[in-house]
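seq:
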Amino acid sequence: MQEELYLRFSPKMYAVCFRYAANATDAQDLLQEGFIKVYRNLHRFRAEGSFEGWIRRVFVNTSIEHYRKKSIQLSTVSEKEEATIEDSDISALDQMAEKDILAIIQELSPGYKTVFNLYVVEGYSHKEIGDILGISEGTSKSQLARAKSILQKKIAQYLSDTQKSYTR
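struct:
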């Protein structure tokens, strides 16, 4: 049964781990740790939602615990700074391949990447992220805004470089 679970879910769960990890080796470690937790806690699955959703939650939580253990510090923001944060749209994403987008997201610092993934990919609110990571809601908003700003610049540079290579 364990082998079946691993074969069925490891590709998707590796992708989850990789979004939070610093590199492929860390993602592999998170994948292994996550499956150990799944196997040990199968009896806790209550069939109140999808099994895959339950497994995904285990892997997200495993990744967050790993993040916490590394005790990466997020910079806090004042209420004044928080009021200046704008949520801008990244329309250039439509022009890029998924692998290129993931590669650029991987370049973010661990703090920015974690908040970005929790908010954009996993759908957590800033309040939930604050509770999970032990930061204020404003800090979560700030980290997301900064991550988006960095991503915008990196994407613009990527598109510019790509366009230049086509015109040569």
